[in-house]
Specification:
Strands 1, 2, 3, 4, 5, 6 and 7 form a 7-stranded mixed β-sheet that branches. A 6-stranded antiparallel β-sheet has the order 8-9-10-11-13-12. The longest helix has 23 residues. It folds into 2 domains: 146 residues, Trna Endonuclease, Chain: A, domain 1 (3-Layer(aba) Sandwich), CATH 3.40.1350; 150 residues, Yope Regulator, Chain: A (2-Layer Sandwich), CATH 3.30.1460. With 314 residues, it is α+β, with helices and mostly antiparallel strands. The protein contains 9 helices and 13 strands.
Length: 314
């Protein structure tokens, strides 16, 4: 009998499962609150979708059984100030005991803000930041949620290796990463992200190398000028060569086209942070990030100038 081999789940763009936030993701959450209940140890019951808070509208107003009112604010893009402000506005309007923020990725500054709120609020509201990923597993798409920040003791244990790396070794980690990448980054910043320019020297396009505060690394090309059509044209030009690019870098890439209302596109490589118990483990993590970055840059740099020129952008 031939033994069946099962491939490991592959992370894909969240828009593969939910095309839009309002019409797809929010209704799905409303019907699947049990997923959050299992994750957070709560019993959330839907009160109303798109409930009014004065002139504003919260994605989901819910009741946490035995706790009190709760609000859920979700998005399908990286965390931003707008959604953080909305979450706090809605929580205040509903006098919420629990406030839940869901996004596919979080900036470290926003996770720090959630931690700060929880540290100074005496437990009311309890604010959670949940990362949502979409995985293709045996041909099926399924979501996966992880607690990145929340009241003391609730964040998933899996994020500690990433936190340990960032808090204890972040300066040495990044300096050695910079040295190994040869080309100095345009700017390292407080969100633990290194930004390298491309061969095309376009200020709106660059490579990002990032060690998240949680349990994941990301190496990607960010196409983020203020011109949405310009970004999309470059992205689509590169995507037409997707098979060859994937073959050259040696791994599958996540091709993330700008969502409705958004402007930027990205071509990403994600990797989980393994258990970290020693400086040698950190070095292995760094080496993997460098290898992925250099492979991605080699494959895309030779294609970018032509992709940009075809738009009339240079």
């Amino acid at each position: 009998m031939t033994e069946q081999r099962h491939e490991a789940p592959e992370q894909v763009d969240v828009h593969s499962l939910w095309a839009t936030e309002a019409r797809d993701f929010t209704p799905w959450l409303a019907e699947n609150l049990g997923v959050l209940n299992d994750l957070l140890g709560l019993k959330l019951c839907l009160l109303k979708r798109e409930a009014a808070v004065g002139p504003f509208v919260v994605d989901l107003a819910v009741i946490a059984d035995g706790v009190g009112p709760a609000v859920i604010e979700n998005q399908l893009t990286e965390s931003d100030h707008t959604h953080l402000g909305q979450l706090l506005t809605y929580a205040g309007g509903f006098r919420a005991k629990v406030a839940i923020w869901i996004a596919p990725s979080f900036r470290t500054e926003h996770l720090n803000a959630v931690d700060w709120i929880n540290a100074h609020s005496d437990g009311e509201p309890a604010v959670y930041a949940l990362r949502v990923k979409v995985l293709r597993d045996q041909g099926e798409l399924r979501p996966e949620f992880t607690v990145l920040a929340g009241p003391d003791g609730v964040a998933d244990g899996e994020i500690e290796p990433g936190e340990w790396a960032m808090n204890r070794l972040e300066l040495g980690f990044h300096q050695d990463l910079i040295d190994r990448c040869v080309t100095a980054p345009v700017h390292p910043n407080a969100s633990h992200l290194l930004y390298f320019e491309t061969a095309a020297k376009d200020p709106g396009i660059g490579y990002n190398v990032r060690l998240w505060r949680s349990d994941q690394t990301s190496v990607h090309l960010w196409i983020g000028s203020s011109d949405r059509e310009f970004n999309l044209a470059i992205f689509q030009s590169l995507r037409r060569d997707q098979a060859a690019i994937n073959a050259e870098v040696g791994y599958e890439l996540s091709w993330e086209e700008n969502p409705p209302g958004g402007t930027s596109c990205a071509i990403r490589s994600y990797a989980d942070v393994p258990p970290i118990d020693s400086p040698e483990d950190i070095d292995d993590l760094r080496r993997g990030m460098v290898d992925r970055f250099l492979a991605l840059r080699e494959a895309l740099d030779k294609r970018l100038p032509a992709a940009i020129a075809a738009t009339g952008g240079v």
